[in-house]
Amino acid sequence: MIAWPTPLIDELARRRAIIFLGSGVSKNSMGIGGKRPPLWKEFLELGVIRCADKKRAREISKLIKESDLLTACELLHDALGNEWENLILEEFVNPQYPPSEIHQHIFSLDSRLVITQNFDKIYDTYASAASQGTVVVKSYDEGDVSNFIRKRQRLVIKAHGSIDAPNDMVFTKGDYARARHKFAAFYALLDGLMLTHTCLFLGCGINDPDIQVLLERNVQLHPTSNPHYIAMGARYSDEFRRAVKKTMNLELLQYNPKDNHSELRSSLETLVELVDQKKQDLVNTRDW
Fold it and tell me: Which end of the chain, N or C, is less surrounded by CB atoms within 10 Å?
């Protein structure tokens, strides 16, 4: 079980925390035929199978094995052509993924800001339904995202776009470069949010390009700021954890990933209870 840090519980209770969602959260959903949304690497491997150019397929597979997923994704996009969009629809839309228990726990944390890197709409749809349509969902490429940051409504930000607009999704190496240039104001907004809020990363990897850039830049500009947190289903040495803390100001919250990350789900259920208790304490003490 994750031992949730007291400062994180306090930030969540005061609604001064942002929850970052990665593909590991969507992986908890099971659609038609028992299918689950693929992780980034899994999606690329599925694409390689469809690649008619076997020489190109071998090159992409080599890049995947070397963990150069951005370049692999760029080459695969070009190799598949029109089949690229069909693959996206088949993997992220057609199975009709329902929300899972983990989505319910995340919503129950009552964070005003949730930033998701997922193209699917699993959490977005659940949050809208659970809130009677009061949750606002905005994409990185919408010019009025900043207008909603200071409003009282709960906000879900699609940092990489949505399956509703496949051509605008941030997926390949070129997509990342274009997004950072064309939508520089959005990335500046993220920089500001990283400074003013505590971030809890769920279902994300520390090798994600966006997360790395955001955290590494933030720690260089503001080396004394409070740490952010990431739940990781793996065990790392103390030396590795110290290195991540030094270079990214990120605390690793480790758990056992067996049984489809059931320990993370139960840990989040506990976190909801701890945050609710802290909220009640704030009501009683009026220590807003």
Answer: C
